[in-house]
Amino acid sequence: MDKINILKYLLIVFGFLIFSCNNSEIAETVQIEVKGIDTDETKSIENTDFSLGEQIYRDNCMICHQENGMGVDETYPPLAASDYMLADKIRSIKLSVYGSKDSIIVNGIKYSGGSMTFSDLENEQIVSVVNYIRNSWGNEGGIVTIEDVNKAIEKK
């Protein structure tokens, strides 16, 4: 067998092993290594760089929500351990993009509307900052994708 046929054979066997594996976490890791790219199915928190989101947060959000994400009592809601923010990723994107004129209840405390927005940020920047917020200060909010942002903006 020549090298091309051996390589094809190994890829077929390797593909069979991936798809026959019951452990989806292992399959996702292997897919990332094989493809070398992140897709909706393969992207994970472990391989996400939050540095851009952190910088956007520091430049735009920290003054009100504080460095620790705890906000200011009864004035600016917390983002750390925020039941409201973590319950719905599409809502968290919409709040970031459009703000809210209505009052909201976060962790049992009522906050008036009128929040700041990121109307001047590109969609990729919105992905970065929302991912930073949903995965900082002990939050385990999962990954928001560009598709999620596009979907949230379409459904204004």
What does this structure look like?
The chain is mainly alpha-helical. The protein folds into 2 domains: 3-35, no CATH class; 45-154, Orthogonal Bundle (Cytochrome Bc1 Complex, Chain D, domain 2), CATH 1.10.760.10. Helices cover 51% and strands 4% of the residues. It is built from 8 helices and 2 strands; from the N terminus they run ααααααββαα. It has a two-stranded antiparallel ribbon with strand order 1-2. Strand 1 (104-106) and strand 2 form a beta hairpin. Helix 6 crosses helix 7. The chain starts with a helix and ends with a helix.
Summarize the structure in short.
The chain has 8 helices and 2 strands; from the N terminus they run H-H-H-H-H-H-E-E-H-H.
Task: Compile the SSE list and pairings.
Elements: H1 3-20, H2 24-35, H3 51-60, H4 62-65, H5 83-87, H6 89-98, E1 104-106, E2 109-111, H7 123-134, H8 146-154
Antiparallel strand pairs: 1-2
Helix pairs in contact: 3-7, 6-7, 6-8, 7-8
- Gyration radius, to the nearest Å? 20 Å
Spatial ordering of strands, largest sheet = 1-2
Number of helices: 8
Q: Spell out the helices and strands N to C.
A: HHHHHHEEHH
For the record, the CATH architecture of the largest domain stands as Orthogonal Bundle
CATH topology of the largest domain: Cytochrome Bc1 Complex, Chain D, domain 2
> N- to C-terminal separation?
58 Å
The average pLDDT is 78
Number of structural domains: 2
Task: Give the CATH H-level superfamily of the largest domain.
Answer: Cytochrome c-like domain
Beta strand count: 2
